[in-house]
Amino acid sequence: MKKVAFYTLGCKLNYSETSTIGRMFQERGFEKVEFTDKPDIYVINTCSVTDNADKKCRKIVKEAQKHSPDAFITIVGCYAQLKPKEISEIPGVDAVLGAAEKFQLVDILDGFVKQDKPQVLASAISEANTFHNSYSFGDRTRTFLKVQDGCDYSCSFCTIPLARGNSRSDTIENVVRSANEIAESGVKEIVLTGVNTGDFGLQEGKRVETFYQLVQELDKVEGINRFRISSIEPNLLSNDIIEFVANSNKFMPHFHIPLQSGSNKILKLMRRRYLRELYADRVSTIKSLMPHCCIGVDVIVGFPGETEEDFLETYNFINGLDVSYLHVFPYSERENTLAPDMPGKVSIKDRNRRADMLRILSEKKKRHFYEQNIGKEFHVLFEDDVKDGLMEGFTENYVRVVAKYDPVLVNETKHVRLTGINKESLMEAEEAYAEVLKH
Ligand code: SF4
């Protein structure tokens, strides 16, 4: 039996796809092993958004060769689609597969026999027009379920549409079927994942279903107690969806909404499809219906043309928003996008300084959000990671709660009262009811 090992860089979508490719190998009789277990085949799933994608890819290939010098090394993923030739020139790489080919990997690389030259099979991105269903099985508690792929937007900093192609989706029927399969395996929480998740429902360029319809159908799936929406563009987060989440017992009061900038001038340069007023409106609608809702925000700082005043406008805008945490990214140039040619380049030093300022703001926001929840009752779904005799889990509204490890609690939901924040900035809790709620 041949052994195969995987390495994933990047986002949740990549993790769900690696997991699916792994299951395909297992169905064909391969044994899935750890990276260091001398596999016969390595599959490295790359990312184009990560900084130094090339350097990271080289490093992983080198490590792979160290652990299994004769292994067949295959590179897939966004970076493989964008730079197939460069990747094929990395010493040790045997095959590079693009977005349209990665799910046929086992068939295409029949037998995984090394050739004189690396095999490069990366069609034009326009060929990547079919949707391939994927979900991850990292642990027993939570699964990332891909419902949508690709993006039809053209944000001026983003290379994802070039790496993943046009927006396309699974059907509601298929997503519900996957959710039922996941429920049967005992997983309690599903995170709906996509490149532009809110754009769900396009089939061959035509809108046949909507994200709102999808959440309504998923809400009826028995056996899954928790759904989260991984990230949704503010212009696609309609009041219908917000109201539905507010009234659902299964969709958690937690949104992650990319803002990117709090300056309308920069939002326009970024080619985002909303202005800051719309964003503020979404946040206030959510909070008026769900005062305890957790809201995460993505922000890019140091975009070309962002002056100190523009940055402060972003800082003050976010400071005034009732949001719970930020993911901050210093702007980084990507080939074949519009932004690098725009005037007003911001120095790396300023990009990092601005990012540090927002990260400090994020800590403050998070602490404030946690403090608002002290004394309140929630349900915590405990996970199976144990560290220093402690385990962790999340409340409905994404407060991370720490507790003394108890094997009985793994993958169980417990009714607790939040008591206070410890030195590690984690929430502590006490039991609200004696019994463990077995959902
Ligand atoms: S919405 Fe913009 S940032 Fe997001 S994937 Fe599409 S182009 Fe990239």
From TrEMBL:
<dbReference type="InterPro" id="IPR006467">
    <property type="entry name" value="MiaB-like_bact"/>
</dbReference>
<dbReference type="InterPro" id="IPR013848">
    <property type="entry name" value="Methylthiotransferase_N"/>
</dbReference>
<dbReference type="Pfam" id="PF00919">
    <property type="entry name" value="UPF0004"/>
</dbReference>
<protein>
    <submittedName>
        <fullName>tRNA (N(6)-L-threonylcarbamoyladenosine(37)-C(2))-methylthiotransferase MtaB</fullName>
    </submittedName>
</protein>
<dbReference type="InterPro" id="IPR020612">
    <property type="entry name" value="Methylthiotransferase_CS"/>
</dbReference>
<keyword id="KW-0411">Iron-sulfur</keyword>
<keyword id="KW-0004">4Fe-4S</keyword>
<feature type="domain" description="Radical SAM core">
    <location>
        <begin position="137"/>
        <end position="371"/>
    </location>
</feature>
<keyword id="KW-0963">Cytoplasm</keyword>
<keyword id="KW-0408">Iron</keyword>
<dbReference type="InterPro" id="IPR007197">
    <property type="entry name" value="rSAM"/>
</dbReference>
<dbReference type="InterPro" id="IPR058240">
    <property type="entry name" value="rSAM_sf"/>
</dbReference>
<feature type="domain" description="MTTase N-terminal">
    <location>
        <begin position="2"/>
        <end position="114"/>
    </location>
</feature>
<keyword id="KW-0479">Metal-binding</keyword>
<dbReference type="InterPro" id="IPR005839">
    <property type="entry name" value="Methylthiotransferase"/>
</dbReference>
<keyword id="KW-0949">S-adenosyl-L-methionine</keyword>
<dbReference type="InterPro" id="IPR038135">
    <property type="entry name" value="Methylthiotransferase_N_sf"/>
</dbReference>
<dbReference type="Pfam" id="PF04055">
    <property type="entry name" value="Radical_SAM"/>
</dbReference>
<dbReference type="InterPro" id="IPR023404">
    <property type="entry name" value="rSAM_horseshoe"/>
</dbReference>
<keyword id="KW-0808">Transferase</keyword>
<dbReference type="InterPro" id="IPR006638">
    <property type="entry name" value="Elp3/MiaA/NifB-like_rSAM"/>
</dbReference>
<dbReference type="InterPro" id="IPR005840">
    <property type="entry name" value="Ribosomal_uS12_MeSTrfase_RimO"/>
</dbReference>
